[in-house]
Amino acid sequence: MSTARPFHLVAFSLTLALSSPAFAQQAQQAAPPPGSPAATITIPGNQLPPPPQQFGGKIERDARNSTPFWPSRVVPPKGAPNVLLIITDDAGYGVPSTFGGVIPTPALDRIAQNGLRYTNFHSTALCSPTRAALITGRNHHSVGYGVIAEQATGFPGYDSIITKDKATIGRILSDNGYHTAWFGKNHNTPEYQASQAGPFDQWPTGMGFEYFYGFMGGDTNQWEPGNLVRNTTPIYPYEGKPGWNLVTAMADEAIDYVNRMNALSPDTPFFVKFAPGATHAPHHPTPEWVKKIGDMHLFDQGWNKLRETIFENQKKLGVIPQNAKLTPWPKDLIKEWDQLSADEKKLFIRQAEVFAAYAAYADNEIGRVIQSIQDMGKLDNTLIIYIEGDNGTSAEGQPNGTPNEVAMFNQITPSVEDQLKYFYDVWGTDRTYNHMSIGWAWAFDTPFSWTKQIVSHFGGTRQGMAISWPEVIKDKGGIRHQFHHVIDVVPTILEAARIKQPDIVDGIKQSPIEGVSMTYTFDAKNANAPSTHTTQYFEMFADRAIYNDGWIASTKVLRPPWVTIAKLPSPGDYPWELYDLRNDWTQAEDVAAKNPDKLKELQALFWKEAEKYQVLPLDSTVASRMITPRPSLSAGRTSFAWTRPMTGTPNGDAPSLLNSSYNFNVDVDIPDGGAEGVLVTQGGRFGGYGLYVLKSKPVFTWNLVDLKRVRWEGPELTPGKHLIEFDFKYDGLGAGTMVFGNYTGIGQGGTGTLKVDGKAVATEKMEHTLPFILQWDEAFDIGSDTGTPVDDNDYQPPFAFTGKINRLALDIDRPKLSPDDVKRLQEAARAAGDGPSADDGQTASSGAQVGTVGLSLVEKIQVRMDKREGCRKQAEAKGLGMVDRVKFVQECARQ
């Protein structure tokens, strides 16, 4: 007689057993056995990916007699924290309320109050370099980012390539079982590898981040980002959505991601890098935030009073020592507030309010991401590192500020009068690519001197940072003053997660991580412990410094950051300063004359570090590096052809028409009833060109940074086949003149002719062309337009061509210097002291009511350096040895 019970009774009994407290406790304690589907393993981590796991089952001829064995899933060490790494953009030490600023940043305040504030944390003074150091734990030159990706040159420290022996924190954590994602700015893909042709190994998804939602490059239009991608695919989610803003969209994406990972795999920790574009230009907050900040009237008393207020707040908060000195206002560079006209004050206040609204808005969205982690119940074991700024506040807005950052990079500065007339009411909206006056940048770096780009002084490198980890950091609200650097973030995360740096990744031996962990500061007993980071070099555009055990030797700043073309001495001839940071927190007193031996010691240390970390060769150029030839899909080519629509080719891989003659030739079919749409375009609302058909009429438009548009228009096209041609003859000598320190070959004018079926239908003379760059967050598009239009009055994207493009050809004729040109340029260079020289028209801004005093200082520096450079050449001609040569130059320059 069978004793088996009915199935439903068996199931009921099993349910009771599984739900009993004893069984639940036993199940929680028992780890899944090796080979089972739920088995996990924590790897040693010395080799990534780990070697294949050995099969531990049994294989016979018949599966019924065999034993399966699943590879264990890799998981981090037990208790490893989630990690939220936040870094904002272009924000100095005095920006957030957390470090004495007047701009409310409650999310950063929250992290500081629930954890620790770090008052002596440093960046590299520029975007790409800081971010490369942040994700690798190595110095920026060590990973190819001596400058931003768009200025890469063919030297190991400057080629914008993170080599395979320097795995990122994303790769290390991912291979150790973390979920990894990156939201926001990606400024660490070489400009010439950012197209859909790849390669993709230098994109976030190729560097160990499993998911990426963000923009490629240094900045973007937050209303209509033309360089936004998901993983490696361009996306345009703003189309048809007025009021859409990327800051909110990426916060929504990050919140969705962490909740999705928590739902799918709640026991697996996540690592999220969250990098909003704020507060890099363009400053694009929502109108609600502009009103909130405007109603607070934070900036009505001007930048000098703002500095004083921030300085007082910093002492009250204890984020600077009580004996710290406020560095002096640079009267020879920037006018004091009381010297400004009423119009200047009105414009500049508006600029500051929009900047502050952008900072507050971004912090609010960051706060939403943090709150979502708390709502999941995971905040206690989440390590949050919130760094305010990847460098000091940017002074790249020029003396007057600018409604269009693209104009600034092309050496064009609109007057205050024009900005008030045409842009004041739309400042910060999708109609501007705006930046603020240099006076505000200096004030937001209080209490230090200088700004972004400058590494020799802390205004460019000191960042406010807060870290919380409730489960571990118990000294809530504590302050830490130890010197640390952005390269210390990776080793801190690895130590917190108890994961080692790998020795081998993909078969390649790894170079050592160069930073040190900050986890020792988490313990209250180490609040005043000596820093474990004792030596750190700094270098950017030949400006440099060396920190060692409380001292810093710094070169004198010879080029203000808002001057992108300047005559400078050989980097080896820069004068040096010395600061005793143990008694001078803000670099207020140069003590080089009192400590010559200490200065020599630190100078020697700098050169040692420079050789060790790929800093050489030093290069002081800025603007010219933007048009330095680099590898790309178009490098070395002068003829191009396309036979079908294609959009999304970024500037780094697109053909460049700047400073050249060129010819577009388009074979099209116009259907019955006419056609319209884009044939080819590059750039957009803030600088670029477009050839398109508008109501069946061919049009070519050059948008000169939204300040002027030159337009060619032909007659209406009849149905059928047509050949539309635009031919441009450039009048200048081209970029080759820059080799001789001469900028007259670029930005010159030319004559454009629009033709239909071989007949000229419109001819226009352009007095000037753009010398350096088009709108960088837009693409080279054929057949339709992504991003923004070159002329809003003509069309709105995508404006796809409704006819047929049979073939589109482009031929570029880049000027070549003749022997006579070379001889003339060489003679001019020798007459100028055989050093690089700037064209006077490039350094002087039309209508620059603020900062003309600063430009005269640059000119004085140039005269002095011309003489020194000439002396150096005389010494070389005499064949003097090094010691005698230095002595000769010093005596010659004093005469």
From TrEMBL:
PROSITE patterns reported for this sequence? SULFATASE_1
Q: Which GO terms describe its molecular function?
A: hydrolase activity; metal ion binding
Q: Which UniProt keywords apply?
A: Calcium, Hydrolase, Metal-binding, Signal
Q: Does the keyword Calcium apply?
A: yes
The signal peptide here is 1-24
Q: Where is the Sulfatase N-terminal domain?
A: 81-497
Keyword Hydrolase part of the UniProt annotation: yes
Task: Output the Pfam families linked to this UniProt entry.
Answer: Sulfatase (PF00884)
Would you identify the family this protein belongs to, as annotated? Belongs to the sulfatase family.
Its name, as the record gives it, is: Arylsulfatase
This protein's species is Bradyrhizobium huanghuaihaiense
